[in-house]
Amino acid sequence: MTGVGEDDELDGLTAATGAGLIADWVYGWAVSREAGRPVAVRGGFRIEIGRPGHVRRYVLGSLDRDIIRDLVRRIDTPGVWIKAIGPEAEFRALLSPAWELAGSGHLMTTSLRRAVVRVPDGYSVQTRVERNRIVVQVLTGAGEVAAFGQTGLAGAIAVADHIGTEEAHRRRGLGGVVMGSLANAALDQGARKGVLAATAEGKALYLTLGWTFRGCLSGAWIPLPEQEQNATATG
Ligand SMILES: CC(C)(COP(=O)(O)OP(=O)(O)OC[C@H]1O[C@@H](n2cnc3c(N)ncnc32)[C@H](O)[C@@H]1OP(=O)(O)O)[C@@H](O)C(=O)NCCC(=O)NCCS
Hints:
The protein is an alpha+beta fold and 235 residues long. Helix content is 31%, strand content 37%. Coenzyme A is lined by residues 147, 163-165, 170-176, 198-199, 201-202, 204-205, 208.
């Protein structure tokens, strides 16, 4: 989904803009994932997550060579991640062999607007607000989850996360139902701006809903030893 004009936007993304975007994203993301509160570090934030394959992540507003090379040199713990705004090819050049690229995301933002949510026949929507987290599920008539999503709230910012539609139910408008329901509930909670990091498929959906692509988010991690990866996959 690399659209025409995307590179122009990346060229125009200054480190200051990147720092602002990251700051907007991390607090709500941490709420959504029930992770520790983001701690400011040089170039961005550190977030404690505490899961075997995702112990901790650093989220950086730009591909600052000194900062990334310093992290790469100092860190050797499997399950630590770095996410940084900037193109993957440039990010790769800053990594040591211990680190593995983990795909890139698309940071997007929107001004939240009340959505008219049209639920296709045969489905129903459940929206729950759990403290500062909103959880939406679209259910089939048999009560199975067909689509889902959640939002972490951080003041005026709502970070959409874990959005998905089960394969058999895709392209029926359910992704739009999830996003519209999340946006309406977030507005009810006082949020005004939406931020998220999208997959390529997610980006295609969010563009149709009026979201704006703001920059690529490259990711890398130190992989777990193979036996631990298997245990994580089955556990
Ligand atoms: C991305 C995802 C949530 C979309 O869910 P969905 O229920 O199929 O989305 P909708 O039916 O509401 O799509 C609405 C519109 O968005 C666009 N769109 C959605 N998915 C698209 C895709 N894979 N490719 C191109 N356009 C897409 C289309 O314009 C679509 O309208 P159309 O079907 O009339 O062409 C779903 O494909 C998915 O779960 N993918 C795997 C997990 C994932 O990547 N989640 C997003 C994380 S950020």
